[in-house]
Structures are given as structure tokens and as C-alpha cells.
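Our consortium's second objective concerns turning raw sequence data into structural hypotheses that experimental partners can test. To show how far this objective has progressed, the report includes one record in full. It was chosen at random from the queue rather than selected for favorable results. The single chain below, 126 residues long, was entered without modification.
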Amino acid sequence: MKIERFEDIHAWREARGLVQMVYAAIGASEHFRKDFRLANQIQAASVSCMANIAEGFSRHGRKEFIQFLYVTKGSAAEIQSHLYVALDLGYMGQDMFDQIYDKADKVSRMTSNLIEYLRNQTHTRV
């Protein structure tokens, strides 16, 4: 499948789902909603995953795209770290934690695979 726009990238689609999960988790907990700093940080990290895939793709250069994908991986790890805070404070249960953590892990793994693919390409487009 040829990727012509960022919406065609499977990792971006997974990141979009991750954003939805993060926002739903915050919306489901009054205490989480009221913890503005944590809620804002985890929301920003989730949106960053999506945005960096899109922005990197739009740069049309393999090296730049890879740089943005590394930022995506960092944001996914940040989400996972914030999830522990939310779990420890009782803002979410173990099941929700596991679902979001696993989704962030999937985004990170897919991003790693995309990085590896791009490194092995001789042309500059995806």
C-alpha cells in the first residue's frame, strides 16, 4: 500500500485511538478531570503522538520523519509513565490502565517498525 497522506499510516491511526482512550479515561473520573496538571500532560503527550507522525510525514524527508517518529516514541513512554500516577492515585482501575498502556506500547512498536523501514529505504518518500 502506498502512503500518500499521513492518515494512511497505521501508527497514526493507532495513535488516534490512543488519544480517544486517554480523553475517555479522563472524562470517566472526576478526580482525574480535576487534576489539571496531570490531565493536561497526558492529553498533550497523546496528542503529540498523533501530531508528530503527521508532522514528520509532511516534512517529506526521511531523516526528519525519523526524528519526529522518535519524539512519538518518547511521548508514548510519557503516557505510560503518567498512567502509573493515575493508577496510583485511584483515577483509573487496572483494566483501563492496562488497555491504555498496551495501546501506547502498540503505537511505540509500530513507530519503531516504521523507523526501521525508513532507515532501510534508499528513496526519500514513505
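The partners drew two points from this record. The mean pLDDT is 95. The helical segments are 10-27, 30-34, 36-58, 62-88, 94-119. Both points have been shared with the crystallography group to help prioritize constructs.
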